[in-house]
């Protein structure tokens, strides 16, 4: 069984100065991943999540192109039925299973997911070591990525279909697509000046952080991954 031991970060910790929307923060598991107040309960519950042989899971770090990747997977799974895609809010067809780790309680997506017919499309932001026991590049050349994803899923798609998906998944098109842009989340979960669909620019974090902060974060990550050389190879 996965170790999901949770330790409360003292409210006096300077972490809260940076995560102002956290009323509580927990370090979970041997790797001490940081979660908001609902993290311990949701992570523990997810350990009992029953995967199926034909599940398709999109597993990513937050804000690393998840919505883009899930749209590619979804379109491939419905055989490029763009009209059908216009009518389905993505959370109903590709649910974010671990969403309730956040501060604001939402619908029970674990129960919702359990009742979905197969094959299911699922999304997780949990780190690999905290995923359920039985569930274990982003690229400028979108068409190449789409082709690779289709091959991985064993779903047929021709060159024209790949071009259609690539156009559909352009950032500006997705930003104005209400079935994927999570505009309803902006008012519910985020500060008014923040939008879920931001700029779609790889590396834009460099404009949001000072060089000193970037150096500090890089050092912390490097120190914390000393026992995980494979992860270091990905990060550095």
UniProtKB/TrEMBL annotation:
<keyword id="KW-0808">Transferase</keyword>
<dbReference type="InterPro" id="IPR000863">
    <property type="entry name" value="Sulfotransferase_dom"/>
</dbReference>
<protein>
    <recommendedName>
        <fullName>Sulfotransferase domain-containing protein</fullName>
    </recommendedName>
</protein>
<dbReference type="GO" id="GO:0008146">
    <property type="term" value="F:sulfotransferase activity"/>
</dbReference>
<comment type="similarity">
    <text>Belongs to the sulfotransferase 1 family.</text>
</comment>
<dbReference type="InterPro" id="IPR027417">
    <property type="entry name" value="P-loop_NTPase"/>
</dbReference>
<feature type="domain" description="Sulfotransferase">
    <location>
        <begin position="140"/>
        <end position="223"/>
    </location>
</feature>
<dbReference type="Pfam" id="PF00685">
    <property type="entry name" value="Sulfotransfer_1"/>
</dbReference>
């Amino acid at each position: 069984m996965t170790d999901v031991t949770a330790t409360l970060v003292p409210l006096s910790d300077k972490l809260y100065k940076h995560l102002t929307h956290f009323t509580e923060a927990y370090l979970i598991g041997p790797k001490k991943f940081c979660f908001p107040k609902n993290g311990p309960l949701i992570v523990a519950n997810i350990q009992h999540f029953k995967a199926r042989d034909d599940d398709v899971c999109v597993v990513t770090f937050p804000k690393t192109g998840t919505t883009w990747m899930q749209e590619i997977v979804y379109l491939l799974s419905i055989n490029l039925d763009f009209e059908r895609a216009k009518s389905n809010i993505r959370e109903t067809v590709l649910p974010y299973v671990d969403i309730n780790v956040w501060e604001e309680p939402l619908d029970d997506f674990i129960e919702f997911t359990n009742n979905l017919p197969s094959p299911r499309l699922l999304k997780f932001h949990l780190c690999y070591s905290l995923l359920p026991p039985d569930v274990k590049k982003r690229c400028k050349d979108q068409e190449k990525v789409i082709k690779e994803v289709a091959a991985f899923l064993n779903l047929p798609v021709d060159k024209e279909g790949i071009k259609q998906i690539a156009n559909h998944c352009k950032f500006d098109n997705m930003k104005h697509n209400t079935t994927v842009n999570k505009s309803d989340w902006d008012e519910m979960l985020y500060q008014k000046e923040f939008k879920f669909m931001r700029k779609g620019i790889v590396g834009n974090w460099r404009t949001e952080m000072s060089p000193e902060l970037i150096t500090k974060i890089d050092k912390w990550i490097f120190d914390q991954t000393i026992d995980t050389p494979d992860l270091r190879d990905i990060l550095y």
